Amino acid sequence: MGKGDKKTKRGKINRGTFGARRPRIKKKPSLESKISIDKKAIPN
Fold first, then answer.
1. Residue range 3-35, pLDDT digits in tens
2. Of 2, 11, 12, 41, whose Cβ has the fewest other Cβ atoms within 10 Å?
3. Family per UniProt (predicted)?
């Protein structure tokens, strides 16, 4: 178990691949994308 092992986290880092042991980190959507700047609140 080490750098050459395909199934370990260290092995995934060494090979530069992703999998169940080392999933890709998904980027969180920014606040700007959640709040639409184009749409303005309509006053009642």
1. 889 889 999 999 999 988 889 988 887 766 666
2. 41
3. Belongs to the bacterial ribosomal protein bTHX family.
Has this prediction a pTM greater than 0.70? no
4 vs 13: CA distance, rounded Å: 10
* C-beta separation of 12 from 18 below 8 A: yes
What length is written for the chain? 44
Dist. CA 30–CA 20, nearest whole Å: 26
> Cβ distance 25 to 31 under 8 Å?
no
Distance CA 14, CA 19 (A): 13
Whose tokens are 């309509």? That residue is 42
